[in-house]
Design goal:
Rossmann fold; 2 domains; 5-stranded parallel beta sheet; 12 strands
């Protein structure tokens, strides 16, 4: 049985092992695969793993041996699920592997925004502390999370874990989770609308999937609901934010800071306005990528395939 990994580098740049996956078949791992080479590299493979390489109807029709597609991520929009189902191809994803890592990043971004910590570090590197007349200096509006209202948009595993940590740090938690039933939790309140959450929150964290309904949910109109100086955190999908509108609000000071691990196009275009906006703290889509999270992802991917081969499919999405 031939197994192909189309884009394995981001999962395993060399600090993990492919040995367990290799034990299940003849394995070929490509660091990256351009769209033009997907069919050529997978033409005689029964098993294909992908992270960001798109497997559409076109590719499926040209891969007659294909029986199983493993998505090396939680989101599986890179696969034409409907057509794969019609062709009796099993598609499995990797759920809940990075919850702790993503929440850790969210908290780090919140602290960066509240204290301007990245700016403080850069100032020391530039020699400003060494030249200071005082033992200490700090940016204006250096704030703490205790007492702030954290608005969480989306209340799945990550949203619930984030609420736990925020409450432990003394924040108030307000949640909006459109169309979902809420569970009663001490310390957690629920907004009746997105507008209510935005207008009542000091910090807003986006933890929802990207859908046609919520694309650019943070835009010029919704930003106007937000408190002056409030903070936006996005570790979900870049398309949730109108980037021009957010950059404008950051530069005007209406939004005090933004912590972003995702952008609408990745890698970003050089002309993305957020790259030069005031107090925009951007990380390169790494919230998922701690060693522990990637190790879990690898182990679940192997378990998915092993279970498929044993006829006991887990984490199937079609």
């Amino acid at each position: 049985m031939r197994i192909v990994v189309l884009d394995g580098y981001t999962l395993n740049p060399g600090d993990l092992s492919w040995a367990e996956l290799r034990s299940l078949g003849e394995l070929t791992v490509y660091d990256r695969t351009p769209k033009s080479l997907i069919v050529e590299r997978c033409v005689d493979a029964e098993i294909v793993f992908t992270n960001k390489c798109v497997i559409s109807k076109y590719e499926i029709d040209l891969l007659p041996m294909l029986k199983f597609i493993g998505v090396l991520a939680t989101g599986y929009n890179v696969v034409d699920i409907t057509y794969a189902t019609q062709k009796n191809i099993v598609v499995c994803n990797i759920p809940a592997y990075s919850t702790s890592s993503v929440v850790q990043t969210i908290i780090g971004l919140i602290i960066s925004c509240l204290t301007k910590m990245p700016d403080q570090i850069k100032s020391v590197q530039r020699g400003q502390w060494q030249r200071s007349k005082d033992f200490s200096y700090y940016p204006k509006n250096c704030l703490e999370i205790t007492g702030k209202t954290l608005g969480i948009v989306g209340y799945g595993r990550i949203g619930r874990k984030l609420a736990d940590v925020a409450l432990a740090l003394g924040a108030k938690v307000l949640v909006y989770n459109k169309g979902k039933t809420y569970e009663e939790r001490i310390g957690v309140e629920y907004a009746l609308s997105q507008e209510e959450l935005l207008s009542c929150s000091d910090i807003v964290s986006l933890n929802c999937p990207l859908t046609p309904e919520n694309e650019k949910m943070i835009n010029e109109t919704t930003i106007a609901y937000m408190k002056p100086g409030s903070i936006i955190i996005n570790t979900a999908r870049g398309g949730l934010i109108d980037e021009v509108a957010l950059a404008t609000a950051l530069n005007s000071g209406h939004i005090g800071a933004a912590g972003l691990d995702v952008l609408s196009t990745e890698p970003p275009r050089l002309d993305n306005p957020l790259l030069t906006a005031k107090h925009a703290y951007i990380t390169p889509h790494t919230a998922w990528a701690t060693l522990e999270a990637r190790s879990r992802l690898m182990n679940i991917a192997v378990d998915n395939l092993r279970s498929f081969l044993a006829g006991n499919i887990i984490n199937k999405v079609n």
